Amino acid sequence: MSVAVTPFLMFEGQAEEAMQLYTSLFSDGRILELVRRPAAGSEAEGMVLRALFTIGGQRIYCSDSNVQHAFTFTPSTSLFVDFDTEPELVRVFGALSEGGTVLMELADYGFSAKFGWLNDRFGVSWQLNFP
Fold it and tell me: What pTM was computed for the model?
């Protein structure tokens, strides 16, 4: 039996926009599957029912919830990315922090050459590292 653990991100109407941003920032970024909600009753037609994308060799599922929840993303769960070059780290940090919230500025905190932590404009938390 084979088991795969894959992160799953639930948005409230911004899943496709988030996927487009994330896959544009990584050279291997690809949207592998995108299924939209059909017109049915009170559900929002065209929202992402199910999607799968890949960045940095990691497959990630996402969807748009058709109901509003009293919860959203939290920094206690984040996507951690190690970069090969400092300029690449700085570029991605800048793009993801636009419209978001920087939790830890890019700096040397003693455990790596440069590290930064942020919540992007969709609320997804990222820890970006240049070891």
Answer: 0.91
Q: What is the pLDDT of residue 42?
A: 60
Question: What single letter denotes the amino acid at residue 73?
Answer: F
Average pLDDT over residues 15-44: 90
90-97 long-range contacts (CB < 8 A, ≥24 apart) are: 91/25, 92/25, 92/26, 92/128, 93/118, 93/128, 95/21, 95/25, 96/21, 96/25, 96/120, 96/126, 96/128
Which helix (H) or strand (E) is 68 found in, with range?
none
Cβ atoms of 78 and 125 closer than 8 Å: yes
Q: Is 85 left (phi over 0), alpha (psi -120 to 50) or beta?
A: beta
Mean pLDDT, range 21-30, rounded to an integer: 98
